[in-house]
Design a protein that fits this description.
heterodimer, A: 470 residues, mainly alpha, 19 helices, B: mainly alpha, two-stranded antiparallel ribbon, 72% helix, 3% strand, globular
Chain lengths: 470, 494
């Protein structure tokens, strides 16, 4: 199998959906097809994890780091597709092939992104993934105004972020005379301490901050999460963030060690992001908005690993993103299943969930406890790794801020559990029936989240090797 | 102090067995639907575990100092966390207590739990795994995971099967304990950065600077004081106890509270000895306040469960008083009190559960005049009440006597201040007993006396009360060398 197998396979599945979308008539099989294809994609990404090499004159790099992230991306895509479509209002029947097509294309863009080591290939890959998502956001049925507003906002903010990023890249090129990341960052060494160098680097990162919804580029998240369909939100909340963290790690690792000012900027952004996310998260009633703010806070946490600028920090951030993928998908699964006719789920809708659907309530509890960072879940080990990595790199104050934030965030995560366990259901709330596929997914998330919390050793070994490959 | 692992081993990893048998039981019962089968599996797993834990007691070599039955495996090399287990004279009796109480908790829930039996038994078994894990972990990460893992099933026990104010009680319990846990985590990370390892034995008596000890002690002490709970962190306890189902109350009182005092003994004394001595006067004062204050509060209670909950605060005050007296008698008394309180208060909560099943009320008034209709019940209740106020010949007398012996040895004023607490205990327990046995006017409606199942789960505790009360020597011999070594190591700092 060639080094390009994951990308090639994803591209081929994109073509399959494209051809299906051209045909008229009923296309119910497309959902099943998407699940099969994305599962094959996951296997192929797993099989090509040891490939390495450089291509296109050094613009495209395949190493353990990129392959690990490709595996995570393929996993995310498969899990989103596996969730299925609960109600016909979720995504309009006629647009289903397009829906799968663009999500696949977006993932292809992200896969290319994690391998890009040239400003130009990097930009192309990022835009490929962004534009696919722009198209997906308004595909929600029956919510005309809201989803259009969300889509418009996302496109505008996204375009501006891209513009700012291009602006920064222009500076980088002007300072160093090259678009190759290695050369760029080599050249930056001389100007790293000058405001110009720091500004160029920070502006370039804006595009990734946007994807990760890190402060101050977080403001799109709550509206987009609220406005787009559940499956789209699930995707936006998980997969692109993994890609963004990969690129941030790559850039941070290449950044000159003496770039103190650069690290300081990241420290401030990280602290603000988690504080803002958690404080605003406290008052949210809409589950998806709550998850958006939780996502902003988690972007702040994961930056602890990025700004440690060490192999350990990189591995911790990777581990955290892997766990983040699982625990967020677990919570979104609950949202998708509980949603009635594609409506948003409010925190009150969780009342008495443990009576209506015990398995679902337990999935919610495990995911929420993991997001809050309580053992024995993966979220705890992830946070412990991030905190110790940042501690070792000397960011004591930031670790304290993060610890305080963990305590604050607990209130709203625990609130979810509290509503589903200790509040009685109102009136005649009927039970929630789960299909066997959904049951399997619930068990899968519970087992994986607890597994990552108890046996971090094997995964961490892979991620550490991956960070060394940078 | 190097990793001190005594060379007492069994051919198989007994601690892992005792920790994970309940967990396997919990996973096994997930496969079954019938209520009877589920209860049977839960009872079987806890009884089997009690049986399997017996070698811990029988093969424990009291002459050895250091951790016995030790197990050590690499678990998480990149962080230096290891799967390290071991017990000494402090933790072994606590593990035995947990193993003894678990089957009793299953038995007492046989009829009392009417819905979601499977999930309930699952939580009980999970709790047992986590509790035994806490007492045997010799690695901070492992310890912390067990410590926190216990929180979730306990929260669910209160939140799902609790009383009318379960929402308030469960959230208060969770938030209180979690705030403590966050501080514990900070202290653990600080120790890790200082030592480069998460090993607990390697962190003991290392001669850290006083400033370091000061802060680490504060973080530890607040976390443990919330768990004990010490005055003024005790307010979560009555709420949680009153709302929890009987089995939850028993676990909470008998084992969870001990984790706080166990933490004081294992971590505060060993890791931050100088700071412990420095803060001892404060801790002694808080303990005495707890004893006296809780005693007065008990006098005014109308709810049986609330009364026993507050009496726990007073009893645990004696434990912390003993620990911070820094004498061998004090330590011994504290450890005795931890076990005695586990037995006696657990039994009292079981008694409340039994009467609640019959009258659906926990108010003393509704349950008075039982002497005629439930003589057997009143006999058991009487024994446990007498034990609770440390009547000579019962287990609590031994513990309280040792504590007071220790305290009087170092500070007469502190000893004298604690004495009224013992008198108050007699007052409120006798008041309870009197009103339950006799009735002012009218007759108590006829109620069924104890059935065989209830006698079976009260009897072991009654035997323990009298046995420890009359022959404390065996238990004392088990803990003495460990405590002796601890006090020797501490002598430098006094």
């Amino acid at each position: 199998m060639g080094w390009y197998a994951p990308e090639l396979f994803t591209f081929c599945s994109f073509l399959v959906y494209f051809l299906i979308s051209l045909r008229k008539g009923t296309r119910r099989y497309v959902r099943f097809l998407a699940q099969v294809l994305s599962f094959l994609g996951l296997i192929i990404a797993g099989a090509s994890i040891l490939e390495e090499g450089e291509f296109f004159a050094g613009a495209y790099r395949v190493d353990l780091f990129s392959q690990v992230f490709k595996l995570l991306l393929a996993l995310g895509l498969f899990l989103v597709f596996a969730m299925g479509r609960r109600s016909p209002e979720e995504v309009e029947e006629g647009y289903l092939p397009e829906f799968y097509m663009f999500l696949t294309l977006g993932t292809l863009g992200l896969m290319m992104l994690v391998s890009s080591v040239d400003l130009i290939s990097l930009f192309i890959a990022l835009e490929l993934s962004s534009y696919s998502i722009y198209v997906i956001v308004p595909l929600r049925r029956g919510h005309g105004a809201v989803d259009l507003e969300a889509a418009a906002k996302y496109i505008f903010f996204g375009a501006i972020a891209s513009g700012v990023m291009l602006y920064g890249m222009g500076y980088l090129y002007a300072l160093t005379g090259s678009t190759n990341l290695h050369h760029v960052l080599e050249g930056l060494r001389e100007v790293a301490l000058e405001p110009m160098g720091v500004m160029a680097l920070v502006l370039t990162l804006v595009g990734f901050f946007f994807k990760l919804s890190l402060f101050p580029l977080h403001f799109w998240a709550p509206d987009i999460y609220e406005g787009s369909s559940h499956l789209t939100t699930t995707y936006i909340a998980t997969v692109p963030k993994v890609g963004a963290v990969a690129l941030l790690l790559r850039l941070a690792f290449l950044a000159p060690q003496e770039a103190k000012a650069f690290v300081e900027v990241l420290v401030v952004l990280s602290a603000l992001s988690m504080t803002l996310g958690n404080l605003v998260g406290l008052v949210q009633r809409d589950l998806k908005r709550l998850l958006a703010y939780s996502g902003i806070a988690h972007a702040g946490y994961v930056m602890l690993g990025v700004l440690a600028l060490s192999g350990e920090g990189g591995a911790s951030a990777t581990y955290y993103m892997a766990v983040y993928l699982l625990m967020n998908l677990g919570l979104f699964l609950v949202v998708v299943i509980l949603s009635r006719r594609g409506e948003n789920v409010l925190i009150e809708d969780l009342k008495g969930l443990y009576r209506r659907a015990p398995l679902l309530a337990f999935t919610l509890a495990v995911s929420a406890f993991s997001l809050a960072g309580i053992p024995p879940t993966g979220g705890f080990i992830g946070k412990l790794l991030l905190f110790t990595a940042a501690f070792k790199a000397g960011h004591l104050v930031l670790v304290i801020v993060a610890t305080v934030n963990t305590a604050i965030s607990l209130f709203y995560y625990l609130n979810l559990v509290r509503y589903s366990y200790s509040r009685e259901p109102e009136g005649t709330s009927e039970g929630v029936a789960l299909s066997w596929g959904e049951r399997v997914l619930c068990y899968l998330y519970i087992v994986l989240i607890i597994y990552t919390g108890l046996f971090p050793g094997p995964l961490m070994r892979i991620f550490e090797a991956a960070s060394l490959a940078l | 102090m190097e990793l001190e692992l005594a060379m007492n081993q069994l051919p198989y990893p007994i601690l892992s067995t005792v920790i994970f048998v309940p967990l396997f039981g919990a996973l096994l019962l997930l496969l079954f639907e019938r209520e009877g089968t589920v209860k049977g599996i839960a009872l079987g797993a806890t009884l089997l575990n009690l049986l399997l834990s017996l070698p811990l007691l029988l093969r424990f070599d009291p002459r050895l100092v250091g951790f016995q039955f030790a197990e050590l495996k690499d678990w998480f090399p990149s962080l230096g966390a290891r799967y390290a287990l071991g017990v000494d004279g402090i933790s072994m009796p606590l593990i035995m207590l947990t193993a003894l109480l678990s089957p009793l908790c299953v038995l007492c829930s046989w009829r009392a739990i009417e819905y979601r039996v499977k999930e309930f038994m699952f939580c009980i078994l999970l709790m047992e795994t986590a509790m035994i894990g806490v007492f045997s972990a010799l690695d901070f990460v492992l310890f912390y995971i067990f410590w926190e893992a216990m929180l979730i099933p306990m929260y669910l026990l209160i939140a799902i099967w609790g009383g009318p104010r379960k929402d308030y009680a469960s959230i208060k319990f969770f938030i209180y304990t979690l705030v403590g846990s966050v501080l514990l985590l900070v202290a653990i990370i600080a120790l890790y950065l200082h030592n480069g390892t998460f090993s607990i034995p390697e962190a003991l008596f290392k001669g850290y600077s006083f400033r370091f000890q000061y802060w680490v002690f504060l973080a530890f002490a607040i976390a443990f004081a919330i768990k004990v709970p010490m005055f003024p962190f005790h307010t979560w306890l009555p709420a949680a106890h009153v709302e929890a189902p009987t089995a939850g109350s028993v676990f909470l009182a008998s084992v969870l509270l001990k984790m706080g005092t166990y933490g004081f003994m294992r971590f505060c004394l060993g890791i931050t000895p100088r700071a412990s001595v420095h803060f001892a006067p404060l801790m002694v004062v808080l303990s005495i306040v707890a004893i006296i204050y809780a005693g007065f509060v008990c006098l005014g209670q109308e709810d049986m469960k609330r009364l026993i909950a507050y009496s726990s605060v007073a009893h645990m005050g004696f434990v912390t008083l003993g620990i911070f007296s820094f004498t061998l008698w004090g330590f011994k008394g504290a450890l005795f009190q931890m076990l005695n309180h586990g037995v006696t208060t657990g039994a009292l909560f079981l008694c409340v559960g039994i009467i609640y099943e019959r009258t659906h009320s926990r108010l003393i008034e509704d349950n008075s005049g039982l002497g005629k209709v439930m003589p057997l019940y009143v006999a058991f209740l009487g024994l446990f009440c007498f034990s609770s106020f440390a009547f000579p010949g019962t287990n609590n007398f031994v513990g309280e006597f040792f504590v007071l012996l220790g305290v009087f040895g170092v500070n007469k004023a502190a000893g004298l201040a604690a004495i009224p607490g013992a008198v108050l205990a007699a007052a409120y327990m006798l008041r309870l007993l009197k009103r339950i046995t006799w009735r002012e006017e009218g007759e108590q409606a006829p109620l069924a006396d104890l059935n065989t199942r209830e006698v079976i789960y009260l009897l072991p505790l009654a035997v323990a009360v009298i046995w420890v009360g009359l022959a404390p020597k065996g238990l004392s011999a088990v803990m003495e060398p460990t405590l002796q070594a601890l006090i020797e190591a501490l002598r430098v700092y006094l």
